[in-house]
Amino acid sequence: MKISIIIPCYNYGHLVEKAIASAATNHPEVEVIVLNDGSTDDSLNVLHTLSKYYNFVLIDKPNAGLSDTRNQGINLARGEYLIFLDADDYLTTDAITLCLNAINNNPAQLILAEHYNIVGQKRSKSKPITLGSNHYNNVKRYITKDLSIVNGGCLMHKDIFATRRYNPALSNSEDIPIFIHALANFSVKSLNKPIVSIVKHSDSLRHDIAAILETGTSIVDDSFDNQYINDDILTLKPLALAHRYSSIGRACYRAKMYKKSRHYYFMAIKSRPYFIFKESLLKRFIISTLKSV
User: Fold this and answer.
1) Helix (H) / strand (E) containing 198
2) Quick check: 166 and 70 in contact, CB under 8 A?
3) What is the rounded distance in angstroms from the CA atom of residue 35 to the CA atom of residue 42?
4) Is the torsion defined by CA of 183, 187, 191, 197 positive or negative?
5) Which of 33, 57, 174, 246 is the most exposed place for a label (fewest CB within 10 A)?
6) Cα–Cα nearest to 149, from 178, 106, 122
7) In whole angstroms, what is the distance from residue 34 CA to residue 162 CA?
């Protein structure tokens, strides 16, 4: 088994078929594992129905969150490489072929591909993946968003999970520590073709402001745990903290929580004064300040 595609599902019964259909191609070297994480809608019934038409392993489990669900998927996976596909996204028609070719022709432990962003009827392609052989630079470029990594758009060798897993204590951005761990410690290569469509919609878990605030900056401490990365890369922690402040500020701004938005933007600028020259950040900081008076 070359690839295990792991699809967590929580209350996405109305969307999950497209994800399963894109992954369950019946390729002999690919397995699909769908885990229902204690959904409270009709997801489980939907998945049982879909299992009659598509070839996948269905696991029903009590609700424990996305990290726990992905970790269970890792335990069950027989594949050498793992793809974590969100239930509201879907693979491209040639994704499996592209992934298998990438594994067979020039294997690395982390393979990063391009992706499509879907907003309504509009589709845009992510920028090409550019990588170096230096772990420090790759981590830095990921922190500063010069390097884009999305679930569904990367293949991760099971070796990456030999020493660390997704942290169930993180209710948002739980993938960031794993991506930093992978970039810091494992070989990486690019697959400069899109393999997944990332669907942007208002009720996506990516935009859960309560989860974002609950996680806060703890994600940075988790990402830079010295058990998993060396001292050189640990020096990037202050930069990561500044970008996390900015990210939370942006999320609060979109949620019209202007007082909190102003606070986090202020912390970002305080941490990295040159952030004030970022036009979009400065604009939102000023608006948040005016609206929070």
Assistant:
1) strand 188-200
2) yes
3) 14
4) negative
5) 57
6) 178
7) 22
Max Cα-Cα span within the chain: 61
Instruction: Give the single-character DSSP code of 118.
Output: E
What pairing do the DSSP bridges indicate for beta strands 81-84 and 122-125? unpaired
Q: Are 207 and 251 in contact (CB under 8 A)?
A: yes
Helix, strand, coil distribution of the chain in percent, nearest 5: 45, 20, 35
The mean of the pLDDT values for the chain is 95
3-class secondary-structure state, position 60: strand
β partners of residue 119: 122, 200
First-to-final CA distance of the chain = 59
pLDDT at 208 over 90: no
* Torsion 98-86-173-250 (CA) sign: positive
In the structure, how many helices (H) and strands (E) does the chain have? 12, 9
pLDDT given for residue 106 in this prediction: 75
Domain boundaries, the chain: 3-202, 212-291
Whole-prediction pTM value?
0.94
Give pLDDT tens digits for 245-272: 999 999 999 999 999 999 999 999 999 9
Asked whether the beta carbons of 92 and 155 are under 8 A apart, the reply is no
Which whole-number Å values give the CA distances from 259 to 87, 273, 278, in the listed order?
33, 20, 20
